Amino acid sequence: MSEEKLPAAHAPAGTLDPFADPGLPEHEPRRTDIDEKAAKRAERQVSLLFVISMLATVGFIASYVTIDKYRIVDLFFFGKIGALNLALGVTLGIALFCIGAGAVHWARTLMTDEEIVQERHELKSSPEDREAGIREFQQGAADSGIGRRPLIRRTMIGAMALVPLSGVVLLRDLGPLPGNKLRHTFWGRKGPEGRTVIINENTGKPLKPDHIIKGSLTMAKPEGLNQETEDHQPNEHYLAEMGKAVILLVRLEPDEIKSKKQLEWSYQGIVAYSKICTHVGCPIGLYEQQTHHLLCPCHQSTFDLADDGAVVFGPAARSLPQLKITVNESTGFLEAVGDFAEPVGPSFWERG
């Protein structure tokens, strides 16, 4: 039979109890506990971290207001990234890190660090224990020195008060800041009656009427809208403009077109519509030849291309905007006449 383990208090003399309480080592004071100059230096370091946090928050707000959201910077190994996103991430990260680092440095160098042992007790606290907890909290507040170190207290409050402003500034996007940008696309840059050559999105070449095959969709964009500028620099506005200007072309029989206005805006049965769903802005690309219906894959909104792009099913509330097209008699290329008659994409408050 195995021997029964004896309690530590009754262990035979000379035996080693492996579960004996080793106790706490002797407390060693920190340099800031015995050297007031070191304590002052640590106080200035903590305050400096809080001040850096404040400056970073101001930098976050300044970046949000001044940096163009389409600006791109090249970070070598990381590749190309939006300058605004980079500035916001770096400044907000510094602001939050410095608050945390300042609090940790404060606790490790200036707050009381004497070891305290608290024996386990039942979960329910007695009134005496609750009173003792309040006293310990008050003692902890006194030990932290926050009342005696106004420089730390003020800079910490300033840093924590400024950080929430980052979220407040973001509310700016809820206002009508886009102005009339949502009402116009790249097609209208030459004016109401200006003509723009229609470019095949896949080949990058101008389209002619015989390129549009019945029963298929042809994705297109306006001439001049390219990913690079003339000096071979990245076009910072390409994606934003493309998101509004991209169109799809479909060839119908002229007698299948139900609307007189739609027929006038077409060329030999070729109609051009915005590719952007009027529900939440998904790109549309599913075409059913027999019914002339166009299906949005996101939420199944269905549009009738033979009837002014009207909604026949799904959550979309508005018809697809049509683009008026014609042909250049000298070149034979399809051209758009002016811009869409109404804003493309989802509805917005200022639409009217």
From TrEMBL:
Keyword Transport: yes
TM ranges: 46-67, 87-107
Record's bilayer topology term: Multi-pass membrane protein
Keyword Cell membrane among UniProt keywords: yes
Region of interest called Disordered, as start-end residue ranges on this chain: 1-33
Subcellular location: Cell membrane
Keyword vocabulary terms for this entry: 2Fe-2S, Cell membrane, Disulfide bond, Electron transport, Iron, Iron-sulfur, Membrane, Metal-binding, Oxidoreductase, Respiratory chain, Transmembrane, Transmembrane helix, Transport
InterPro entries according to UniProt: QcrA_N (IPR045603), Rieske_2Fe-2S (IPR017941), Rieske_2Fe-2S_sf (IPR036922), Rieske_Fe-S_prot (IPR014349), Rieske_Fe-S_prot_C (IPR005805)
Primary residence: membrane
One Pfam family linked to the record: Rieske
Tree of life domain: Bacteria
Listed GO CC annotations: plasma membrane
CC cofactor: [2Fe-2S] cluster
Its biological purpose: Iron-sulfur subunit of the cytochrome bc1 complex, an essential component of the respiratory electron transport chain required for ATP synthesis. The bc1 complex catalyzes the oxidation of menaquinol and the reduction of cytochrome c in the respiratory chain. The bc1 complex operates through a Q-cycle mechanism that couples electron transfer to generation of the proton gradient that drives ATP synthesis.
Protein name (record): Cytochrome bc1 complex Rieske iron-sulfur subunit
Source species of the chain: Yinghuangia soli
